[in-house]
Amino acid sequence: MHLRIRLSTLAAGVVACCATATTVLPAQAFAAPAAVTAGAAATASAPATPTATTPAVTAAAIAAAAGKPAGPAAAGATTGTENLAAPAAPLPPALLSETLMGEPAATAAQGAPVQPKSAAARAQSGAAAAAAAQSCTPADFAGHTGADLVAFLKGSTTDCVTALFNSGSADPSIFQQARMLPVAAAFKDLAATYTGDNSTGILQLVLYLRVGYYIQSYYPDAAGPYTSELTVAVKAGLDAFFAAARWHDVTDTNGGVLKEVLTLTDSANIQADYLGVYKRVLDDYNNSYNAFPQMVNAVNSVLRFPLWRGNTNPNFVNALGADPSLVTSLANFAINHKDLLGGPNAVLDTNAGNDLARMAGSGPAVEAAAKPQVKRVLDAAPLLTAAAPLYVYTAYQANVYDNSQCSYYGICDLPAKLTAVVLPNQLVCDNRTIQAQALSAAELATVCASLRNEDAFFHNLVKDNGPVPNQYNKTVTAGIFANKADYTTYSWAIFGNSTDNGGQTVMNATDPNNRAANVMYQKAWNNSDPARVWNLNHEYTHYLDGIYDMKGTFTQQMSVPDIWWVEGLAEYMSYSYRATTDTDAMAQAALHTYKLSTIFQNTYGNSDSTRVYPWGYLAVRYMLEKHPADVQAMLARFRVGDYTGGYAVYNNLGTSYDADFDAWLTACAAGACYAAGPTALFDTSVNGATVSTTERSVQTGPGQITSWHWSFGDGTSSDDRNASHTYAASGTYTVALTTTDSTGRTATTPASVTVTAAPVALPTCTEPRTDAMGQNCSRTGLAATAGNSAYLYVYLPAGTSTLTIATSGGTGTAHLYYNPGTWASPSAFTASSTGTGTTQSLTITNPTAGYRYLSLYAVTDFSGVTVSTRF
User: Residue 179 in 3-state DSSP?
Assistant: First the structure.
């Protein structure tokens, strides 16, 4: 099933895994390969055991937006989806530069203050539930001052104090300096004897100070001025905290407090005084932190806030110029911890590059120190390797903030450089330029033909009279990446799009200097879209709609609830042009969830993916088939920029079509809306690690379904009509069924399945060496102490289509690494699995023949781990 919602947050740090394979076995870990003739690969001698070299430790880094002090952290950050994104204008460099700065998985920074919720509306959770009777309105805090306020804060929950970030529009005066000073003094008293946790209520005091700076920046008149007296008081508390012995405990109890204290150094805009503290945080970080998410977030807070926002503070810049050792630590951090890339904390490493490159543009003194470090990071992170995200982020920020040195960095015209390397396969197709990462000449021609023929289909459908006057963008680029990972890594720096989605159209048709772009990627299982380019025709429809139907900027176009048309048309065009059934829409039609009058009010804010896409498809199809005159009346207003008038056409219908729409849904779901030919339909059931499928495809019109092909999302497949498959590791996979009928027509439908059971046990590998894996076998009892690795290798015969590596069992946390050319390690890998614990999984598709290398890196001591290889 396609789940599609508008997600505008840029996801960072997803790794692309590409490397040249070799049949050579290295003599030792990290050593150059020994020479072996190509013909001798199958009989080459076994590798020498790797030396006990400790791999480079992993790390973290994140940064934040400049300008205002940081707001609260909010759970729920996205980490990448397969959903579409709303069409949008390309993000300008300055804005995109800010968007790059993010939080680790499941956290996000909140923006400007919002209207406060009532106490009754605020959800109480965890420990806060016990304090549900406590009210958290600004008025409750306004009634306390001095020592009474301090006591009230200590007795509050952290959730209660955090809620004050949204209190500004209600009563900013509760953060006047006279109220902040006793809180700062109390913070100093508790900091001097800091216990490494929040048992004294110190966190509530720090949060109150952070809220004060945050609110005062937005409401300076009501909150009043903050003078040097407050700065001195807050600094005294910070100094006492960092002089205490427990502030660098590697625990979650300390991490939760430390994160806010480090952020307070930025909120108070005194970053220049804590360069040594930031340096210690960066230098001390190692893989043991990964077992403590709050400590990871604490490291993040240094990079997200003071090392990003501090570059706007002259005192910070001058301090860096006088002592640039922090710059070197930041570069070391980025280089030494590239193993984070591809894992849940990947954004930390890329944001280390973000910070470093921004520092280079802070002034001559800092630039002199940072330039060679930026170059060192760029040289250590080649494109088309696992380290590529670090290169792209660092290069982008250097291009924005230190562009005068672009020649030194080798990044002048960065989009063109990235395009040449990442999208080398190009074809000019009339007014379209197709730039692709992996399309063959034949596939480029297939895409060209599909787009070229879609033009006539579109014009016949919407019955336009040519381009809307003064809408430019008469040429368009189709940027097509080989997979989601490379789309996420590279596309934003080339096209200015967001990447937490399954593709996006970026254009501003009112700008004669802007060139529209449809940005997409291929999916291996996707046999329905031309050349397996997912959403090719959906995105191209957005381009056509923006030229022939929708006058003005995106802001103008989105000024009324017209998402039912914008997204519904793109869906309807995509499926109807390809003569394919929208199975998601048919399933929704049978549910009768929404009235047509409700769908007419769709916005990205009030609608989830189901309401936007399948129901948008249904609304557009119904209106085009049953009420085309209304559609033409609406488009006549849209084409002259009268969006209020266009909205009135369908809004004034009220509920008059609802009953007929409901009846039409019944017929649609029963088969009236199915495309001619096969429609792939199936059900799945999961039992542990095994998924079983029940095919129930239908044929519409002449012919009959003659073959079935299943793709299970882990590189395996089946041609049985009903199939069963057992996965090697727990996780969520895409099962896709492609049906073919007797006339050669095909249809593909995907669905997600989640398997949770442990993998099926495999027999012990029979190779004499205990570090040698084999085909469909396992090794048990692997162990290593923290900072060390257990090394393994496997020989793959010619014709291997998929290698699946999985680990499970035992205790501790072990990260799994793969390298096709030398001993795998956190600093030498092309694929990794870095979740907490010992359950890891990797799937390598189409590996070439030869020796391949694995390692389990001990984030913490681990023992009793089982490793299996399947191919």
Answer: helix
Please give the Cα distance from 255 to 244 (Å, whole number).
Answer: 15
Q: What strand order describes the sheet that includes 425-429?
A: 425-429, 432-436, 476-481, 516-521, 504-506
As a whole number, the mean pLDDT across the chain is: 86
The span from the CA of 177 to the CA of 165, in Å, is 16
Domain range list for the chain: 38-54+760-870, 132-271+281-292, 313-412, 425-668, 677-755
Q: Which CATH number fits domain 38-54+760-870: 3.75.10.10, 2.60.120.380, 3.40.1440.60, 3.40.50.2300?
A: 2.60.120.380
Q: Is 276 left (phi over 0), alpha (psi -120 to 50) or beta?
A: alpha
Amino acid making up residue 372: P
Length of the chain equals: 871
In sequence order, the β-bridge partners of residue 828 are 825
Distance CA 496, CA 506 (A): 8
Query: Residue 717's Cα: distance from chain center in Å?
Result: 28
Q: CA angle at residue 557 from 622 to 592, to 5 degrees?
A: 30
What is the spatial distance between Cα 380 and Cα 341, in angstroms, rounded to a whole number?
13
For residue 83, give both structure tokens: 């959903």
CB neighbourhood size of 548 (10 A): 21
Tens of pLDDT, residue by residue over 577-620, are 999 999 999 999 999 999 999 999 999 989 999 999 999 999 99
φ, ψ of residue 202 to 5 degrees: the values are -65, -30
Long-range contacts, 413-416 (Cβ 8 Å, 24+): 414/493, 415/493, 415/494, 415/495
Residue 582: exposure state from Cβ atoms within 10 A (0-12, 13-18, ≥19): buried
Backbone angles phi, psi at 186, to 5 degrees: -65, -35
Distances, alpha carbon 604 to alpha carbons 548, 558, 559, 586, in Å = 22, 10, 12, 22
Name beta bridge partners: 726.
690
CA angle 280, 281, 282 (to 5 degrees): 90
The answer to whether domain 425-668 and domain 677-755 are alike in fold is: no
> Could you say which of 3.40.30.160, 3.60.20.10, 3.30.300.30, 3.20.190.10 is the CATH number of the domain covering 425-668?
3.40.30.160
Give the residues across from 695 on adjacent strands.
682
For 309, the 3-state DSSP assignment is helix
Letter string b/e over residues 469-508, b meaning 16 or more CB atoms within 10 A of that residue's CB: eebbbeebbbbbbbbbbbbbbbbbbbbbbbbbbbbbbbbb
- Indicate the pTM of the whole model: 0.77
- Rounded (10°) CA dihedral 782, 783, 789, 795: -10
Is residue 803 within 8 Å of residue 796, measured between CB atoms? yes
CA dihedral over 513, 11, 566, 427, signed as positive or negative: positive
Q: Which residue has the tokens 């542990």?
A: 688
Distance of alpha carbon 108 from alpha carbon 116, whole angstroms:
19
DSSP-assigned letter for residue 311:
G
Residue range 483-508: mean pLDDT, rounded: 91
Helix (H) or strand (E) holding 643: helix 643-651
Long-range CB contact pairs, 323-328, < 8 A, 24+ = 323/275, 324/365, 324/366, 324/369, 324/370, 325/279, 326/275, 326/278, 326/279, 326/282, 327/356, 327/359, 327/366, 327/369, 327/370, 327/373, 328/369, 328/373
Quick one: fold of 677-755? Immunoglobulin-like (2.60.40)
> Which residue, 589, 776, 493, 602, is CA-closest to 6?
602
pLDDT single digits (tens) 19-54 = 222 223 222 222 222 222 222 222 233 344 333 322
Give the span between the Cα atoms of 480 and 435, in whole angstroms: 6
Instruction: Report helix, strand or coil for 706.
Output: strand
Q: Which two tokens stand for residue 365?
A: 């003194």
Q: Sign (positive/negative) of CA torsion 823, 829, 835, 836?
A: positive
Is pLDDT of 191 > 80? yes
Pick the more confident residue, 845 or 783.
783
